[in-house]
Amino acid sequence: MAESTAGGYPPEQRDAIYKVIAERRDVRRGFRPDPVPADVLGRVLAAAHQAPSVGFSQPWDFIVITDRARRERIAALARRRRDEFAADLPRARARAFDQLKIESILDTPVNIVVSCDRTRGGRHTLGRATQPRTADFSSVLAVANLWLAARAEGLGVGWVSFFAERELAAELGLPAHLEVIAYLCVGYVTEFAPEPELQTAGWARRRPVAWAVHAEEFGRRGMPGEEPVDPLADLLAAIAPADADAMTAARERQDRMTKPRGSLGALEDVSARLAGLAGSCPPPLPEPACVAVFAADHGVHAQGVSPWPQEVTAQMVANFLAGGAVVNAFAAQAGAEVTVVDVGVAADLEPVPGLLPRKIGRGTADFTAGPAMTRDQAVAAVVTGAEIARDLVAAGNRCLVTGDMGIANTTASAALICAFTGADPAGATGRGTGIDALTYAKKIEVVCRGLARHQPDPADPLAVLAAFGGFEHAALAGFILGAAALRVPVILDGVIAGAAALAAVALAPDAIAACFAGHRSAEPGHAVTLSHLGLRPLVDLGLRLGEGTGALLALPLVQSAARALRDVATFDSAGVADKL
Ligand SMILES: Cc1cc2nc3c(=O)[nH]c(=O)nc-3n(C[C@H](O)[C@H](O)[C@H](O)COP(=O)(O)O)c2cc1C
Question: Taking the CA atoms of the chain, what radius of gyration do you get in angstroms?
């Protein structure tokens, strides 16, 4: 034991190292104007200069800026980019962003630019030939050293990246072969915040370290010395029923609000359920919201159950990403963000912003010939959906909205609904995007054949998902479970989300507490599903589009229900006489 710790620091010095790492903050507020003495700045820069670098290339330079006029010009550059970014945000995000301070260029006495020379050291620099990005990584390590040393000196550092890099480089007179890595605002502060400001402001949360540590292979999460995390078991174990006290408090408050009792109809239930989910009354407002459109293809398409070619799935994904689909229009109206998740499209999709590549397979197999997917694939898709929920919540979203795209997915949904509810295929199968009588009869027959072949047991929800589901159904089930585990509401769209919710609730019955039925679709299987789940749809407009469109229409209703519970005065507080 003694041998393995030889060379380690004595406990108090070691604690100081961990303390400075834990207490380093990105600081944007509370700077004091006092100048930073040259010797202090020198120590901090010397610490930065001791960073490791690829092939010992030391690619960094430090440009120390104090001149006010120069900082004003640089602040104007940052302001322009900030405004551009803000203009691109969904409404609820833009509101949250507006509250954030993202730079302190003029509030700090010193700004330091860390640059990178990717050519320094010549062509034989060890390591850089195979990985050119290592030069940048080395400069980033210099930033980390500087940031930690500054914290120990009582200096706050704020990193600003709202720049067009070449614009800033020109202002600093950087030679063309040098890149700006970091723009840092440095000064003494009144205090260091105990946690990242973006976490306090509710913009994003810190991911638990166990999510980030994998044993041997990506996906086997868990801390050293602990059993590997079983993501599905953990997910299901994290789901608990609604908090009855918070629901009671919400109902009592609804009764005391300055309105006749019960006059908000179904919205009173929505608000009570939101309180039950959050475990507090009033519950947090369900915004910002994000719709995740899970896209995948279906082997059962080969049976001729849809008039649309399978390529339409990939083409519509491109349309979502280009902002041209109905889901984009409705999301823009509701102020929500759109994320598209490829969980199993049968085509290679170009990487573009807004697309999360999470392919489990290139489309499922035809469920009339065998299981649509393996049990392992079903588990992987469920876990993927839950991870997407987790990432979207960690990124600051407080309401999740389901979306889906997959040619032939109403056929898979009908089979899932029959398997979970025992409904008759003739009553649960619909015309999807619109099919003629002959195709409709064929579709019912295909569902019957699938059910006869697999003899599904609803007590084994993963087997049911594997038998019939699309990858988007399984991922949506995980998304719903993820929302339930994080106690964030999830607004369900139509029949595809409904079929997925049946699977989610079969896996964890308490997940229902997180589910809000956005609408009732025109698909007959959806009504069967909602009554089986005991959910009341908020909108009923005969929609049969999918994509998340019906759920997005319900988003303002769910948000209004929460806002009313939070903001409306009570008879006692407003001095309004109650009914005799
Ligand atoms: C590469 C990088 C760029 C950043 N750019 C900005 C920025 O432009 N504006 C800002 O306010 N914070 C910026 N930050 C700071 C992060 O938002 C901050 O580190 C994060 O919220 C975590 O908080 P903490 O550093 O206090 O732990 C940046 C951080 C890094 C590592």
Answer: 28
Hunting for tokens 């649309």 — which residue is that? 308
217 included as an active-site residue: no
On whether the pTM is more than 0.85, the answer is yes
pLDDT in the model for residue 3: 61
The torsion region of residue 154 among left (phi > 0), alpha (psi -120 to 50) and beta comes to: left
Compute CA distances 146 → 24, 46, 120, 360, whole Å: 11, 8, 21, 42
Cα of 219 vs its chain's centroid, Å:
18
SS3 at position 491: strand
Under 8 Å between Cβ of 344 and 472: yes
Residue 433: predicted pLDDT = 84
Which structure tokens are listed for 257? Answer: 């609000």
Compute the distance from residue 391 Cα to the ligand 1 centre, in Å. 18
* Residue 481 exposure: Cα atoms within 13 Å on the Cβ side: 31
Task: Give the pLDDT score at 1.
Answer: 46
- What is the predicted pLDDT for the residue at 327? 98
Rounded Cα distance between 380 and 298, Å, is 17
Residues near ligand 1 (Cβ within 6 A):
25-26, 28, 102-103, 159-162, 196, 198
User: What are the start-end ranges of the H helices in 279-374?
Assistant: 311-322, 326-334
141 alpha carbon to ligand 1 midpoint, in Å?
15
Residues of the chain with pLDDT under 70: 1-3
User: For position 413, what pLDDT does the model report?
Assistant: 98
Minimal-distance CA residue to ligand 1 atom 29: 159
